[in-house]
Amino acid sequence: MERITTTIPQAEVDRQLQYCREIARMNADRGEAPLAFVDTYGCQQNEADSERIRGYLRQMGYDFTTDEEQARIIVLNTCAIREHAEQRVLGNLGALVHVKRRNPEQIICLCGCMAQEAHVAEKVRQSFRHVDLVFGPHVLWKFPEYIHTLLTQRGRIFSNADDPGSIAEGIPVVRQDKVKAWVSIMYGCNNFCSYCIVPYVRGRERSRRPEDILAEVRQLAEEGYHDITLLGQNVNSYGKDLEEPMDFADLLEQVNAIPGDFLVRFMTSHPKDATHKLFETMARCEKVAPVLHLPFQAGNDRVLKVMNRRHTRAQYLEKIRDLKSLIPDIVLTSDIIVGFPGETTEEFEDTLKVLEEVRFDALFTFIYSPRVGTPAAKMDDPMPREEKLANFNRLVALQDAISEEKHAAYIGKTVRCLLDGVSDDPRYDLTARTPGNRLVRVTGDREALGQFRDVKITGANKWSLFGELA
Ligand code: 5AD
Ligand code: SF4
User: Does 196 contact ligand 2 (Cβ within 6 A)?
Assistant: First the structure.
C-alpha cells in the first residue's frame, strides 16, 4: 500500500476561507450573531474534527449553542464503530424533523464516519428528508463551500464518494478546552482488522508534515496548554507515507524538545508497530506521559488471526514485558472485543489470561457489532447473545477487581496532577488527572483549575481516585 500523501493546495483552503467571509457578511446584514450547534459522537478524532468545524463556523460569524431550537445550523459529527452508536445518531437525527418544522430556515448536516457509509447516506436521502447536507471526513475542508451553496441556492448536498484521503492544513480551530488539546498527526488506517469499519470510512494512512505538527504543538505550549494528545488511528505507523519518511518515536522526541510545561500523550497504538525504540523514547522523554493505550482485542491466537491483527498473544505479552522493564510504573490500557464471530468461550478465556498477566489499569470493552462491508460481518456467528453477554460480564468483573487493586495502591501517595475540570460530584471541588491519566476527584481551592499541583491520594474505587490538594 505504498502511497505518497496528497496535500490540498493552500489556495483551495484559502478559497474556503473566502466563502466564510462571504457568509459572515450575509450574517452581519441580519443583525445579531446567529447560532450553531455541533454535536459530536465517538472518538477523539471526531472531537478534533468538530473543533475545525467550529473554527470554520466562527469565521462564518456563528456563535455556539447546545439548544437545537435556537440553532440556525446543526451539525451531527457521527461515529460508525458500533451499531449502538449509529442507532443513537439516527434516533437523534429523526427527532430533528420536528425542530426543523418549527424552524424551516434551519440547516441540518450529518458528517463524520456514518456519513461516509453509502448505505447510511442512501437512508438519509430517502427517509430523512429534513437533512440538507451529508459529507464524509474526506471533504470536511469544503464545509464552508457547502454551507454557502445551501444558503444561496437551497437544495440538498450529498458528498461521500470513496476517497483514499488527503491532508488539509490551515483550517481554523475553536478548541473546546483551555487545558488539554488534541493534535491530529495522521488520518486513516491501512490495517483492515476484519471487524473494523474505520479503513473504509477514513481512508488510507496519511501523515501531516512534522513541521506543521511541531508548529501547532509549539503554539499550544505558548498558549499555556498543559496536556497535549497526539491523535491518529495508528500513530505507530506515522510518517511512512511522507516524502521524507519519519518514525513516530523521532516525532515524539522532537515534541518533547519543545519548551513549555506540558505532558504529551498519544493514541491509538497498534501492537504490531509498537517498537522497542518507541518504548525507549517514552522512557527517556520527560514530557511523554507514562501511559500507553495498546489494544489487544483478543487473547487467542486463532481469533487474532481471523481478526487480521497480525500479531500473536506471545508477541503482545513480550512487548508489554519490554515496556514494563523500561518504565516499571507505566499505566496500561487496552481495547477488547468479546464475541467476535466464531470465538468460543474457551478461546475467550485466553483473553482473561492476558488480563491476569498484564494487569491493565483500565479497559475499554466491547461486544462485537457487525459492520456492513467488513469481512467479519460475513462470518458465521453461532454464539447466542446471552453467552456473549455472560462472557462480557466475566471480563468486566475481572477487570473491575484489577482496577480496584491498582487504584488502591495510590492511597497515601502524593502525585503531581493536572487539575483539569470542575467536579460534577458535589462532594469534590475539582477533577484532576495523574500523569498516567487516572481520574482523581479532589477537594481544595478551585483557583487551582488548569494548574499542575501535588494531590494527596486519600481514597480509591474501581473507577477513580480521591484526594486533596497538598
Ligand atoms: N465491534 C465491536 N467493537 C469494535 N471496535 C472496532 N470495531 C468494532 C466492532 N465492529 C472496537 C475495537 C477498537 C475500538 C476503537 O473499538 O476494540 O480498538
Ligand atoms: Fe480499526 Fe484495526 Fe485500524 Fe484500529 S487498527 S482503526 S481496529 S482497522
Answer: yes
